[in-house]
Amino acid sequence: MPRKNRRLREPERRRGRFLDAGIADGPGGRYRFRRITGEAADKTYRCPGCDLTIRPGISHIVAWTDGGDGDDRRHWHTGCWNARDRRRPGRFD
Description:
Elements: H1 10-13, E1 18-26, E2 29-36, E3 45-46, E4 53-54, E5 60-65, E6 74-76, H2 78-82
Antiparallel strand pairs: 1-2, 2-5, 3-4, 5-6
């Protein structure tokens, strides 16, 4: 008998590397972003919003300029990314 294809339950579906992606406007223009799950975060990064570290295992946002090739990626705390319009202009770079 062939194996049945089971649908993944919602929590199992989110275990991937990215929760979602999109395009957002920022102080310096348009940016592409992805939400990285805590399970996929395996390095330490420095957040450009607060200049503090993002430790491994912490879910966060990766953003880069819309027209860029991804070499200008920056890893943000989720709260810092949500408050980017209230921060000084130019903090993204």
